[in-house]
Amino acid sequence: MIGFSEKEHHGLKRAVIYARVSTKTQLRDGHGLESQELTCRHYAEFKGYEVADVFKDDITGSGTKRPAMQEMLAFMRKRKRSECFVVIIDDISRLARDFRAHLNLREAIEKVGGVLESPKMFFGDDPVSQYSEGIQALNAEFYRKQNRQQVISRMHARTLNGYYLFGPPFGYRFEKVVGHGKMIVPDEPMASIVKEALEGFATGRFHTAAEVRRFLEKFPAFTDGKKNGLGTDVAFNLLRRPLYAGLITVAKWNLFLHPGKHEPLISVETYQRIQDRLDGRSYARPQVNLHVDFPMRGIVNCASCDRPMTAGWSKGRSAKYPYYLCQTKGCERHRKSIRREKVEGDFRSLLHRLTPAPALLALVRQMLQDLWAQRQARAGAVALDAQREALAMARKSDGLLERLVNTDDPVLIKTYETQVKALETKRRALLESAKKPAENRKTFDGVYRTACAFLSNPCAIWDRDDFELRKTLLKMVFPAGVSYSKTEGYRTAGIAAPLRLLERIGGAFEGVVEPGGIEPPTSCMP
Question: Between 3.90.1750.20, 3.30.1460.10, 3.20.20.150, 2.60.40.2660, what CATH number should domain 172-279 receive?
Fold first, then answer.
């Protein structure tokens, strides 16, 4: 069954110890690395062996690619010609808990001149010893698989009870809670940032997943020092996660939208709005040049069918002319175009009539002061979070440097150097980001002047003919889109609440439809 050549133990005076655990529980219940080492040292003393080194792994026993195991083999390989080593393990399951992995590691140890020994069993090449070793190796694999099945069953049952057990997503961390055990809880300041991103997409503040990604990349906790920022799918996956709405989905267990007991960051209604927006984007993405030429595209809807208008250039006898038009079949305005200057001109007139009263500006100032205080507090929390992560990186780097000093294997040296370099890069990026809130801190008066400039004269921003500024302005005025009629103009129901305040305090719009049942002015107040 196991065909290993016989090794003469005669003259073997040096030994190495290999210890392994796969879970933190084993460290606590007496089967930890220290207890294994102590047992092996007692055995080496009894046999008269001199322990040359100790190698410890904290990894599963089902595989063979283990850092400490590779270090041990490299250590023995360099000394194979000058001396042989006894490899002492506490128990056969410490070598491996997979039959194939056991055979591969036995062969690897033999190739570098090692002889495997244990205080709990004899490793020989006679038929009885080989049979006993094979049975025990198979038993170790059987118990590993059985334990795994039991763990999965317990996890399944706990998940059915409403507890999420997998890796926590952005904005959550695991914590012991009285009466619940270990469960996910909001992790500030990341939780507030994720909540703002999700609600921003649901309300139309962010129109695409790419905009959500750019928003998240402003915070170092999300980028983690990555030069290229977040991956393209990170924001999309974040928007799709029902966990943020308090719902648990585990597809491999056929568990979908199961109520969880953790604290949600958003409501189920908000989550559904996000999914509706994502699922409604099945049409082809418009060309970039059309976006630049038609900034209202994607914002303005047909007043007859309330579907988004498209836009394009119509070829005349001697030139091309820009138009907005409805392409919805069955609509009474189907393919009836409206000149671009009409659609955008009416919008400019709407902006021109937004004249604020002094009382409104005083109210806005108070609102911005409250928002300013919240943002400053968040900036401080983000900076503190970055400092803590940088400190953790420094500790991990020190540990790798210590291992680097104690090894002379070229492969390991290169591996450690690469890891240390990567950690140092991340640490510096975190420290730099932690300084930014203090370096870039602006006065409230400066921020208020910017906001006041918009509220006092939004038309001036539109007239600057800057595409990005115009799109930003459109999002602020019409966060959820707006219906437009060629004869009646824009509907005030689509205008953002602060701008509706401008209308009511500064004077009613002329030529703007006021639909019935609109809320009283006080309902616009935050």
Answer: 3.90.1750.20
